[in-house]
TrEMBL record:
Residue ranges of every copy of the DUF6884 domain listed in the record: 8-151
Protein name: DUF6884 domain-containing protein
One Pfam family hit: DUF6884
Length: 252
């Protein structure tokens, strides 16, 4: 277990599912998916920044909503900034109490969200870790440029790691069940958008024979699958799969 942690705050998105879902799955845009991928790859923990709810844990089930930052007047922005600040203080305090050193808080949100909250000290009041805003400080323009930057950082970090990390969801059986397996069932679970509705790829599955037995490290929640190439033949994406029915992400 690492002694230090990086928290990533991911700005929400306008495109959503039309039914309640865990917050990490509610937002359906490719832009949100790319920020989530960065958060799960580069960060040790992540939360979602929402104009409606403040900071949301990825696993929290919420209803679809229409509120955006542009809908909030000054009083509502004051309340949101206060709530975000308190949530960050609570999170960092809890992690420090567990023995972690919270090294950095990374905010991945556009200026429309970041600027009014920074003006109200949402990210600085009572918080000791450094708070960074890479989408602003790197002078990244539109969403396309931001997504390229995020993808480059994910690729750079992934190249240094020989394993994958579970996404913290609900699992049908203990992770230890994967340890030692020489043959596994794998299915692509990449979040994609279709013309009809957002969904998961689910377009490819296979039984894979590994070069060596799978290894699970309970201290880091990392699974290593020797000899398997993490790229879906159907959608070409490498970062979301189900392995023996267990949802995993940050595949490297």
């Amino acid at each position: 277990m690492s002694d230090s942690k990086t928290l990533v705050l991911v700005g929400c998105g306008a495109a959503k599912r039309d039914e309640p879902a865990p917050a990490k799955d509610l937002y359906t845009s490719t832009y949100f998916a790319k920020k989530r991928e960065y958060a799960e790859t580069v960060g040790d923990a992540w939360l979602i920044l929402s104009a409606e709810h403040g900071l949301i844990a990825p696993e929290r089930v919420i209803d679809p909503y229409e509120t955006s930052i542009d809908d909030l007047d000054d009083d509502a922005l004051d309340v949101l900034a206060h709530d975000v600040g308190l949530s960050l203080i609570d999170w960092t305090t809890n992690e420090i109490a567990k023995g972690f050193d919270v090294e950095e808080i990374v905010v991945l949100a556009g200026r429309r969200y970041v600027d009014p909250l920074r003006e109200r000290d949402a990210f600085s009041a009572g918080i000791s870790p450094a708070v960074t805003f890479p989408l602003q400080t790197n002078d990244l323009g539109g969403i396309g440029e931001q997504m390229r930057w995020l993808a480059e950082r994910v690729e750079a970090v992934s190249a240094e790691q020989p394993s994958l990390v579970t996404d913290g969801g609900e699992y049908p059986h203990p992770l230890e069940d994967v340890d030692g397996l020489e043959e596994i069932e794998v299915e692509c679970a990449v979040a994609i958008e279709t013309p009809d509705e957002p969904a998961y790829c689910g377009g490819w599955s296979d039984t894979v024979e590994l070069a060596a037995p799978a290894q699970f490290d309970p201290d880091t929640a990392r699974i290593t699958l020797p000899g398997f190439s993490w790229e879906c033949p159907e959608c070409g994406q490498p970062h979301e799969f189900e392995v023996e029915g267990i949802r995993v992400s940050n595949l490297v």
